[in-house]
Amino acid sequence: MIWKSWISLLSLLVLATFWNGCQMGPPGQSYVCTDDEIRIGDTLKISLADIPDPQPEKDFVVRSDGSVNMPLLGAIKAAGRKFGELERDIQSAYVTNRMYRYVTVTVKPSERFFSVAGEVKAPGRQVYVGQTTVLRAIATAGDFTEFANRRKVEITRANGSREVMNCKKAQSDPRYDRPICPGDYIMVPRSL
Fold first, then answer.
1. Which CATH number is correct for 111-192, 1.20.1530.20, 3.90.830.10, 3.40.50.920, 3.10.560.10?
2. What is the structure's pLDDT at 122?
3. Of 36, 54, 175, which Cα lies nearest the Cα of 109?
4. How far apart are CA 165 and CA 182, in angstroms?
């Protein structure tokens, strides 16, 4: 008889662990949103100034190998770097290769997006204009519908990692609201 209660207790423990396995951790654990990091697929606006024929701002897409193809230089690694780092590297490459004695390089992101889908009033792609959170992102998509399951909102990060957030808890305690980065995808499921 005792072994049956142990099996029941062990089963409940395994079930509880599985059930809560995808839940967001306590407020102390935070996801760091690096919105100044360049990612594969980003469109960058790069301009060259202080040269004989100043180059107007042009769009460059970060290729699947993580590089951008700069005029006269070829491929320069961009993915995983900060905008200021890329500016310095491009400037250094032009000066080191003696293409220009001095050049000012400016690198800015083009429009970046995150997506909100599921049980929101206006699902779709939203322009990322700066630091934001899941609740604010959902508000930009028209807020929850009456059928939304606010306790199991799924966040898929641009890097492929996933987490589940309890928006009801976050509405009453902002420490549980999660940051949203460019390229993130929020899915609000339907309640049963």
1. 3.10.560.10
2. 95
3. 36
4. 18
d(CA 153, CA 188): 5
Measured CA to CA, the distance from residue 129 to residue 111 in angstroms comes to 8
Read off the tokens for 127. 């322009």
- What phi and psi, each to the nearest 5 degrees, are found at residue 188? -100, 110
CA distance 75 to 176: 42
Domain ranges of the chain: 43-109, 111-192
**CA dist., res. 184 & res. 40, Å (int):** 14
- pLDDT tens, position by position, 69-86: 998 899 999 998 999 999
Amino acid 82 reads K
- Three-state SS at 56: strand
Least confident piece of the model among 20-29, 68-77, 78-87, 160-169: 20-29
- The Cα–Cα gap between 158 and 41 comes to 11
User: Please, what is the average pLDDT of the chain?
Assistant: 84
Identify the CATH class of 43-109: alpha beta
Please report, for the chain, how many H helices and E strands are present, in that order: 4, 12
Does the reported pTM lie above 0.85? no
Nearest 5°: phi and psi at 174?
-60, -15
